Amino acid sequence: MRILVAPDKFAGTLSAVEAADAIADGWRRRAPEDEIDLAPMSDGGPGFVDVLHATLGGELLVTAVPGPLGAEVPATLLLVDGTAYVESAQACGLQLTGGEAGERATTVGVGRLVDEAVAAGARRVVVGLGGSASTDGGAGLLAALGARADVPLDGGGVALEGVTEVDLAPARARVDGVELVAASDVDSPLAGLFGAAKTFGPQKGLSEDQIARLDGHLEHLAAVTDRRLALEKGAGAAGGLGFALMLLGAERRSGIELVADAVRLAERARASDIVVTGEGAFDFSSRAGKVPAGVAAVAAAALRPCVALAGQVLVGSREMRALGMDSAYSLVDLVGEERAFSDPAGSLAALAERVARTWSR
């Protein structure tokens, strides 16, 4: 049989590349004659660059940029045939703050990465959005590209208080002639009840008071720049980075669809007999632009069965099928929570071996 292995990361334990390798190792124990095609996936969040590099190759440009709280952090650009891929989580990811100081977290580092991509000659820059610690409306990115305002743009969301004027002309000039793409699985607008602060503020450690304050600042930022764009789907992605990129002319695309196109997932699914995906927790959030739902849609279009391997499966069989899966299997159910976290690769390989007994002819 021909097996296409296309998992997301298992957050906190395995990258998508590591997860794909573990699934392949386990599957081969049971079915060594099967042909396995590895296609680790991403929705634009952490692991975006590694996933694309694993399949596309290209040149990695290693650099250092300001992190969400100012200290320099390492980051990597991927350059492939005139396109640069940027992973915002490397420069402003939640893992860099430990969920603290969310009001001050800035996106300056992401702007620096975009600037370096342009300086390297990229004519197209794709920014993967997800996993951010920031809620600054992308103001830091705009500042890094030359935008000016009557308040500091590089001090995080809290510094936007009282903003009445933003000059975007220098930033727009810096990316003139460059195609910008914002890759995200988030449909949130910039502000309001379903905006960046109120939807994602709690997971960034923000209190109710801080969330209300930042939401107001984002409303003011929209008022002095472009209210219409602030209402677009994806404007609230990565704490408002989507909005800042849209102000510079970026097209918003589904992260999973963009990665699927880049790695030719549909073509590879048609050449396979079964598609295997996975993620840390398979639940109802998996349907909202997440990797498993995106992979399942590709498998369905190719008329191929799709199964999911997950740390935990938190939906029933009816809900699972509604999400496009023929079956879903839980790591915790097989080996227990302690082993699943202490030996994630070995545990995932054991689960894949078990699944191969059912699905490999």
Automatic annotation (TrEMBL):
Listed GO molecular functions? glycerate kinase activity
Keyword Kinase among record annotations: yes
Provide this UniProt record's keywords sorted from A to Z.
Answer: Kinase, Transferase
The leader peptide range reads none
InterPro entries assigned: Glyc_kinase_flavodox-like_fold, Glycerate_kinase, Glycerate_kinase_RE-like, Glycerate_kinase_sf
One Pfam family hit? Gly_kinase
GO annotation, biological process: organic acid phosphorylation
Report the domain of life of the source organism: Bacteria
To which protein family does this belong? Belongs to the glycerate kinase type-1 family.
The protein's name: Glycerate kinase
Species for this entry: Nocardioides antri
